[in-house]
Amino acid sequence: AAKQPDSGVKLQLPSPIVTRRTRTLSTNQIALSNPQVMGKIKSFCRAKGHGFVTPLDGTVDIFVHISDVEGEYIPREGDEVRYRLCPIPPKREKMQATHMQIINF
After folding, report:
1. Sequence-ordered list of residues with C-beta below 8 angstroms from that of 74, at least 6 positions apart, any chain
2. pLDDT 10s digit of each residue in the chain, 105 long?
3. Which of helix, strand or coil describes residue 68?
4. Cβ-based neighbour number of residue 24 at 10 Å
5. Does 23 map to a domain?
6. 86 lies in which domain range?
7. Is residue 22 domain-resident?
8. Is residue 19 part of a domain?
C-alpha cells in the first residue's frame, strides 16, 4: 500500500468526545416546550444507533437516535421510555423522540 504524505497537520479530537447532537436554541426550546410522552421501544439497532418508539397512545411510531437517549444505557425492545417530541429538520414534517429516559427496562 502506498504511504500517504504527512501534511504536518495534527488532528485533535475534542475531549471528552461529544456524543449528543447540538440543536439550535429554537429547536431545543420547541422540544422542551412539548409535554413528555410515554412509549415502548419497538426496535433499536445498536450498530446503527437508532430505532423506533411506539407511543402508548397508539399513534405512529417515532424515530429515536442514540444521541437523544439520556443516561448510559442503550434502549432495547420492550423498554418503557419517557421522551419529548421534536420536528426532524429540515422539512419538519415528521417528529423524533428527544430527551429520552428509559424508565423501566
Report:
1. 44, 46, 66
2. 555 556 666 656 555 544 555 556 566 777 778 889 999 999 999 999 999 999 999 899 999 999 999 998 999 999 999 999 988 878 888 999 999 999 987
3. helix
4. 9
5. no
6. 36-104
7. no
8. no
CB-based burial of residue 67 (10 Å sphere; 0-12 exposed, 13-18 middle, 19+ buried)?
middle
Question: How many domains, the chain?
Answer: 1
Rounded to an integer, what distance in angstroms lies between the CA atom of residue 39 and that of residue 92? 21
CB-CB contact of 88 with 31 (8 Å): no
In a domain, 30, yes or no: no
> Domain of 82: which CATH number?
2.40.50.140
Find the Cα–Cα–Cα–Cα dihedral 82, 88, 93, 94, rounded to 10°: -40
21, amino acid identity: R
Q: Which three cell numbers stand for residue 3?
A: 504511504
Against a cut of 0.85, is the pTM above it? Answer: no
Q: Which of 69, 81, 72, 90 is nearest to 42 (CA)?
A: 81
Residue pair 52/59 in contact by the 8 Å Cβ criterion:
no
